[in-house]
From TrEMBL:
<feature type="disulfide bond">
    <location>
        <begin position="137"/>
        <end position="155"/>
    </location>
</feature>
<keyword id="KW-1133">Transmembrane helix</keyword>
<feature type="disulfide bond">
    <location>
        <begin position="73"/>
        <end position="88"/>
    </location>
</feature>
<keyword id="KW-0325">Glycoprotein</keyword>
<dbReference type="GO" id="GO:0005886">
    <property type="term" value="C:plasma membrane"/>
</dbReference>
<keyword id="KW-0677">Repeat</keyword>
<protein>
    <submittedName>
        <fullName>Low-density lipoprotein receptor-related protein</fullName>
    </submittedName>
</protein>
<keyword id="KW-0472">Membrane</keyword>
<dbReference type="GO" id="GO:0012505">
    <property type="term" value="C:endomembrane system"/>
</dbReference>
<dbReference type="InterPro" id="IPR036055">
    <property type="entry name" value="LDL_receptor-like_sf"/>
</dbReference>
<feature type="disulfide bond">
    <location>
        <begin position="169"/>
        <end position="181"/>
    </location>
</feature>
<feature type="disulfide bond">
    <location>
        <begin position="111"/>
        <end position="126"/>
    </location>
</feature>
<feature type="disulfide bond">
    <location>
        <begin position="176"/>
        <end position="194"/>
    </location>
</feature>
<feature type="disulfide bond">
    <location>
        <begin position="54"/>
        <end position="66"/>
    </location>
</feature>
<dbReference type="GO" id="GO:0043235">
    <property type="term" value="C:receptor complex"/>
</dbReference>
<dbReference type="InterPro" id="IPR002172">
    <property type="entry name" value="LDrepeatLR_classA_rpt"/>
</dbReference>
<keyword id="KW-0449">Lipoprotein</keyword>
Length: 204
């Protein structure tokens, strides 16, 4: 229940039922704060923010509350309005920033198997590339290039045994050293299409 400036109580439908302040998202985050004025009846009012100074080593949230300066952009929400994790300027030589300039994390947390960013950006595109002498499975595993197309699935996702590894090649195909068939047009195109690089050997 919100109370109007006239002193009469008026029930309003909450815009944000999860608003931790208790005013249901009806207060303007930038200029108002929610205050409980009658605990027995649960009456709350939106009042203009009073710009009281934060103590030394504190940071002001957009809704006026003060939090530790170390709370700013540390990946943990401390302000009710989440403003302590918005528009973060990270030290990009040591940190990375999540999508939409949200939060800063040490670079050691990139691709560590645990999602730290709200949008999961720290765990996207983490598949490592294998050395040239190895085959990169679709799931990121590395196996010896000689095991590609050898009739046995060495990658746990079986991506080292794709269609074309067995049987005779068609007229428009060539057979790789590992017995895989690939289109003849791919020979000597500068890419390892066979998986063992045999299509790029003895090229003019």
């Amino acid at each position: 229940m919100l109370e109007e400036s006239s002193g009469t109580s008026l029930c309003q439908i909450a815009l944000d039922p999860d608003d931790p302040t208790g005013c249901g998202g009806l207060c303007a985050l930038e200029t108002e704060a929610c205050h409980l004025v009658d605990k027995a009846r649960g009456v709350r009012v939106c009042r203009p923010l009073v710009a009281a100074a934060c103590a030394a080593r504190q940071w002001r949230c957009k809704n006026g509350f003060c939090v530790s300066e170390h709370a700013r952009c540390n990946g943990s929400i401390e302000c009710y309005d989440r403003s302590d994790e918005m528009y973060c300027d990270c030290v990009l030589t040591k940190e990375f920033r999540c999508g939409q300039s949200i939060s800063c994390f040490p670079k050691a947390k990139l691709c560590d198997g645990a999602i730290d960013c709200w949008d999961g950006l720290d765990e996207i595109n983490c598949t490592p590339e294998c050395p040239d002498y190895q085959f990169t499975c679709t799931n990121g595993e590395c196996i010896a290039s000689s095991r590609f197309c050898d009739g046995l699935a060495d990658c746990s996702d079986h991506s080292d045994e794709p269609t074309g590894c067995e049987g005779g090649c068609n007229a428009h195909e060539i057979r790789c050293s590992n017995k895989r068939c690939i289109p003849r047009i791919l020979r000597c195109d500068g890419r390892d299409d066979c998986g063992d690089n045999s299509d790029e050997l003895q090229c003019p």
